[in-house]
Design a protein that fits this description.
Blueprint: E1 4-7, E2 10-13, E3 18-24, H1 26-29, E4 34-39, E5 46-51, E6 58-59, E7 68-73, E8 78-83, E9 92-98, E10 109-114
Parallel strand pairs: 2-10
Antiparallel strand pairs: 1-3, 3-8, 4-5, 4-9, 5-6, 7-8, 9-10
């Protein structure tokens, strides 16, 4: 049973923008903080954005702060990641998941930023 479906990735030039979407099953999404993570080859998966269940509180690490914006639509069980001013170091597979505790991971969506 597919519970997390990420989409919206692609190839973009440095400085460009992408908007990722993730639709989750209700059991994962409803009432839970959600998060976006990324993983590039040879590196550990890292958190890039987190949003509270109400959508009123967000967290970003310094590496993406001011460039990425997380949001959610609780009526659609969907969480978004708006990524602006993309850099080559943002290249990775991006995943969404429940923040605490994470569920089984989806397939992710590839983001490639060319210099």
């Amino acid at each position: 049973q597919v519970q997390l479906v990420e989409s919206g990735g692609g190839l973009v030039q440095s400085g460009g923008s992408l908007r990722l979407s993730c639709t989750a099953s209700g059991s994962i999404f409803r009432g839970n903080a959600m998060a976006w993570y990324r993983q590039s080859p040879g590196k550990q998966r890292e958190l890039v954005a987190q949003i509270s269940s109400s959508g009123t509180s967000m967290y970003y690490p310094d590496s993406v702060k001011g460039r990425f914006t997380i949001s959610r639509d609780n009526a659609k069980n969907t969480v978004y990641l708006q990524m602006n001013s993309l850099k080559p170091e943002d290249t990775a597979v991006y995943y969404c998941n429940r923040a605490y505790p994470p569920s089984d991971w989806g397939q992710g969506t590839q983001v490639t930023v060319s210099s």
